[in-house]
Amino acid sequence: MPASAPAPTDSGHPLAPIPYAVRSTATETPDTTTLVIEPRGTRRISLSRPGQFAMLYAFGVGESPIGISRETPEGRLVHTIRRVGPVTKALTALTPGDTLGVRGPYGRGWPFKEARGQDIVIVAGGLGLPPLRPVIYEIFAHREAYGRVEIIFGARTPKDLVYYDEVQSWRRRTDIRIQVTVDAAGRDWYGDVGVVTTRLPDARFDPTRTTAFLCGPEIMMRLVSEAIQARGVDPHAIWISMERNMKCAIGLCGHCQFGPVFLCRDGPVFPFADLAPLLRVREV
Amino acid sequence: MVELGVGGRGILPRREFPRLLEAITASGYEIVGPTVREGAIVYDRLRGVDDLPIGWTDRQEGGQYRLERRGDEALFGYTVGPYTWKKFLFPARERLFTARREGDSFVVIPEPTDGPKLALFGMRACELAGLDITDTVFQGGPTPDPGYRARRGRILRVAVQCGQAGGTCFCVSMGTGPGVRGGADLVVTEILSPGEHRFRLDIGSEEGARVVRGLASVLAPVPPEDDARVEAIVARTAASMGRTMESRGLRDLLRETLDHPRWQHVANRCLSCTNCTMVCPTCFCSTHEEVPDLNAETVERWRRWDSCFNLGFSELHGVSVRKSGLSRYRQWLTHKLGTWHDQFGSSGCVGCGRCITWCPVAIDLTEEVAALRQPATPSAPPGGNR
């Protein structure tokens, strides 16, 4: 079994949320909002690795697991949330000054430090980009430590592209390659059209020394992993971030099982090699 | 003179048996144990020996449970009922904390974890094995459950060695019983035949020794023939298991048969009623409920038992990952018998047979496992799931 993340110790009861305040909000897409939050008091969660997630608590409504998109130098957390159920509706309706609860961080993050010296392939589908953003900035911060960097970012339509301005700024960099594609678009879209796998053949990397980081819908991650593996990349060097229903995030509620693993404490980031057989079975 | 330390044993005559319960109560424990209610033997508060199912037995088969009169006055002449001891350590509903608005923030008040010391009176060998498993689940990981740990620290385990096997029992196959091989504070074996009714009492821990310290005057040394009787009772029970299951290699088997047509076969019968998970001594899945008061100033967080057979259990972004009954039964069985090994280092099944007895359509996991061991034949009904 993979080494488990250390248990958070900041709160009295392991399931008790810590009060945070909304500092600012930004509308990303018609159904997606980014919250920047900061601790209300002295207690806060402390991140150990990018790629971890937190349980965000809408008071009186409930909790939802949300990836941590960024931790600012001042200790603020950035979360990008899609409105799906009652909890995420309540969270995305918060305005600056409102209170929410946070507990975590949970899970093992991305092993980006182990990827130093390697070519990097990052593939994000839709809301898969926020959990990968810390990896991208880690690479920007230590650009010389990595080989070629290929980023492929896809969404259903142009209006579903989160972090649009930020991604545009990345496109101006000459030390990485980034391809942005959408599944479907109108005549006002001048970019690529097609699922992310259609952009893979253009990606340049040395398969013998490449690490890939993938986050997006499960089917996307499987198809991209298989395509990258077919180019010769070791499936142990292809990392995917899994998602399942989750209640406790501390390995007790049983909801986030995926075969032998609990996503909350053994993941949510796994080598594709570990999960590939189960990813090919429906309804696991 | 009887030695009342750990490993000590003595014979307790039936007429003195109430003294055992009195000694447990005098040691500060409330006693919960088997009693007849609602047409079944359930685990509830015992006020005294008379609350035990004296003279009752149960007849169990797939989808069937019937209480019947015995021809004697046995105290423990039955096997396991619909309840498990799990509910005393991991309640079916439990408030975890209360959160209260305070100014522009909120405060969290964790639920107190104090409570009575409980004697779990009448635990069977399979149930002790189940306790070991829930201990691993709730206390063995990086974040132990505070409520479970507190309650677990307050129990006395009084075991009973089974004098008979039920129609759905298969503890022998799972290596958990019927003899008690440790994990109990006290162990009782009922010796009963026409004209004689007595118990062998074994002391399994310091706490067990402390509890029965005052019984020295009523305990007699164990004659060799009674040791032989106890051995024979356990052997007879072991030889009369209602079910068997080949448990070797199950983890690998279940990993390799995820597309076996048998899953569709069982899915066609399974009602997804969740009974098997509710009666299982080791099923631990739970969900959280947020219960606000009218003006949402105070909110309670409740945890209640959940089941992988519920459609909403796997809901992700508004859609269930395991929509089909096939996938839900497969999740339960592959977890219980297969991936449990990966997660917790043992099988999740102790062979108690409850899931067979309490399944309304008599689905029998021992039969399903046997079918999964058969290679999928071309004539089998379609149901591959790739």
Quick recap:
With 284 residues, chain A is α/β, with parallel strands linked by helices.
Describe the secondary structure blueprint for this structure.
The complex is a heterodimer of chains A (284) and B (386).
Chain A: E1 18-29, E2 32-39, E3 53-58, E4 62-67, E5 70-71, E6 77-82, H1 86-92, E7 99-106, E8 119-125, H2 129-141, E9 149-155, H3 164-171, E10 177-182, E11 192-193, E12 210-215, H4 218-230, E13 238-241, E14 257-258, E15 261-262, H5 263-266, E16 269-271, H6 272-279
Chain B: E1 9-13, H1 17-26, E2 29-37, E3 40-45, E4 56-61, E5 64-69, H2 86-89, E6 93-102, E7 105-110, E8 117-123, H3 125-139, H4 146-152, E9 155-160, H5 171-174, E10 186-193, E11 196-203, H6 206-211, H7 224-239, H8 250-256, H9 262-267, H10 275-279, E12 286-292, E13 298-305, E14 315-316, E15 319-320, H11 325-344, H12 354-357, H13 365-373
Parallel strand pairs in B: 2-8, 8-9, 9-10
Antiparallel strand pairs in B: 1-11, 2-3, 4-5, 6-7, 6-13, 10-11, 12-13, 14-15
Helix pairs in contact in B: 8-11
* N/C terminus separation of chain B: 68 Å
Order of helices and strands of chain B: EHEEEEHEEEHHEHEEHHHHHEEEEHHH
Instruction: Using the alpha-carbon principal axes, give the shape of chain A.
Output: globular
Instruction: List the domain count of chain B as a whole number.
Output: 2
Q: Helix fraction of chain B?
A: 25-40%
CATH topology of the largest domain in chain A: Rossmann fold
The count of domains of chain A is 2
Instruction: Describe the largest sheet of chain B.
Output: 7 strands, mixed
Structural class of chain A: alpha/beta
Q: What is the number of helical segments of chain A per DSSP (H or I, 4+ residues)? A: 6
Describe this structure in words.
The complex is a heterodimer of chains A (284) and B (386). Chain A has 284 residues and is α/β, with parallel strands linked by helices. Chain A folds into 2 domains: 18-106, Beta Barrel (Elongation Factor Tu (Ef-tu), domain 3); 113-241, Rossmann fold (3-Layer(aba) Sandwich). Chain A has helices at residues 86-92, 129-141, 164-171, 218-230, 263-266, 272-279, and strands spanning 18-29, 32-39, 53-58, 62-67, 70-71, 77-82, 99-106, 119-125, 149-155, 177-182, 192-193, 210-215, 238-241, 257-258, 261-262, 269-271. A 7-stranded antiparallel sheet of chain A has the order 4-3-7-1-2-6-5. A 7-stranded mixed sheet of chain A has the order 11-10-9-8-12-13-16, with helices on both faces. In chain A, strands 14-15 form a two-stranded antiparallel ribbon. Chain B is an alpha+beta fold. Chain B has 13 helices and 15 strands. Chain B is globular, with a radius of gyration of 23 Å. Chain B starts with 8 loop residues before the first strand and ends in a 13-residue tail after the last helix. Mean pLDDT of chain B is 95; it is low at 382-386. Classes of the chains: A alpha/beta (284), B alpha+beta (386). At the A-B interface, β15 of A face β6, β7, β12, β13 and β14 of B.
